[in-house]
Amino acid sequence: MKKKPIIIAHRGASGYRPEHTLAAYELAINFGADYIEPDLVSTQDGVLIARHENEISATTDVANHPEFAQRRTTKIIDGESKTGWFTEDFTLAEIKTLCAKERIPQLRQQNTIYDNLWEIPTLQEIIDLAKNYSIKLGRNIGIYPETKHPTYFRSINLALEEPLLATLGYQAENTPIFIQSFEVSNLQYLAQKTHLPLVQLINLTDQPFDCTVSGDIRTYTDLVTKSGLEEIAKYAQAIGIHKDILVPRDSNNKLQTPTSVVHNAHTAGLQVHIWTFRNEDSFLPLDFQGNPQGEYELFFSLRIDGVFSDFADTAVIVRDRFTSVDIS
Ligand code: G3P
Ligand code: CA
Questions:
Q1: Ligand 1 atom index nearest CA of 242
Q2: Whose CA is nearest to atom 10 of ligand 1?
Q3: With b meaning 16 or more CB within 10 Å and e meaning fewer, what string describes 187-222?
Q4: Residue range 146-199, pLDDT digits in tens
Q5: 39 strand-pairing partners
Q6: Domains of the chain
Q7: Ligand 2 centre from 240 Cα, in Å?
Q8: 109 has a pLDDT exceeding 90
Q9: What is the SS3 assignment for 50?
Q10: What single string gives the DSSP state of each residue in 128-175?
Q11: How many other C-beta atoms can be found within 10 angstroms of the C-beta atom of residue 1?
Q12: What DSSP state is assigned to residue 60?
């Protein structure tokens, strides 16, 4: 039997429901996902909630709330100018008056029927959901939280790491957990505070924002050299990496020869989790148009250890079929 890569439901079953809602996580669990993934930002009163960005106009109905119109503003977040409404300017009670909506309605029009139905969940509510389903289904549902903009939130006295560890708390003992970040220094900090496995996220371009702030010139490309991976292994247990780094695409969207990153990461003692798998042709390489299953099979054959997917149902089906075949 082949090793079974884990299936991480990327923001929930976000191919089918507005992302980062309890309904999206619930569907992903029922699809058979091993982990559900909340991206985390902070409210004004220091509660961790699930959103991909702290600017929430793209994924909530905040613009339709006249009582919050005055809070629309412009801020610099991780070096980029953003205009809209920011979670750190709202208490949890205020956030709970908002509803989630589909991020990409032009592509996922069918998901818009769920717009304005569900509130924004807290990390605690997501943990409770996973624990309830673990009991109901008789299997442990994991949580795979990501700290979003950790340097920024620490700079405004709303650091994410302490409430994250406090919320995970004793529940961490029975719940499979990975903690992820695109930054380096907050993972190094967390490594001193917890034994939970940590994941260094690796983007296709640029550098970790905390490196930008500290004057560290290392880019994500530097982080996945052999020596870079050995450095990561000192504080993390896995890399969560853009899949195009493992199998680059050319200018015609065609896949090229796989790189040696998986082998080098495994040699350094790191698991390799890759993102993000989506069924729609607009995300797929030319080689797998109309065939998202083929893309999973390619990456499973490279012996990766986990995939983030918007379509956990497809991921689970292909993973189970792929790993049921014996290898010599
Ligand atoms: O966290 C890794 C994966 O989710 C990709 O990043 O931008 O979707 O949070 P993002
Ligand atoms: Ca994420």
A1: 5
A2: 52
A3: bbbbbeebebebbbbbbeeebbbbbeeeeeeeebee
A4: 999 999 999 999 999 999 999 998 665 678 999 999 999 999 999 999 999 999
A5: 146
A6: 6-54+110-323 (3.20.20.190)
A7: 9
A8: yes
A9: strand
A10: HHHHHHHHHHTSPPEE--EE-SHHHHHHTT--SHHHHHHHHGGGGGTS
A11: 8
A12: B
Q: Give per-residue pLDDT as tens, 251-293.
A: 999 999 999 999 999 999 999 999 999 999 999 999 999 999 9
**Could you tell which of 80, 243, 276, 311 is best to mutate to test the pocket of ligand 1, judged by most ligand atoms within 8 Å of the CB?**
276
180 residue type, one letter: Q
User: DSSP label at 246?
Assistant: H
The mean per-residue pLDDT over the stretch 216-245 comes to 98
Q: What does DSSP say about strands 39-42 and 48-50: parallel, antiparallel, or unpaired?
A: antiparallel
The closest alpha carbon to 143, from 37, 65, 58, 256, belongs to 37
Rounded to an integer, what distance in angstroms lies between the CA atom of residue 111 and that of residue 43? Answer: 26
Average pLDDT over residues 44-58: 98
Q: Is 71 exposed, middle or buried (0-12, 13-18, 19+ CB in 10 A)?
A: middle
CA dist 173 to 125, 168, 195, 313, Å? 18, 9, 10, 27
Closest CA to 302 of 274, 269, 280: 274
Report the residue among 10, 41, 59 best suited for mutation to probe ligand 1: largest number of ligand atoms under 8 A from its CB: 10
* Residue identifier of the C-alpha nearest atom 3 of ligand 1: 275
What spacing in Å lies between the alpha carbon of 257 and ligand 1's midpoint? 24
Which residues lie across from 42 on neighbouring strands? 48
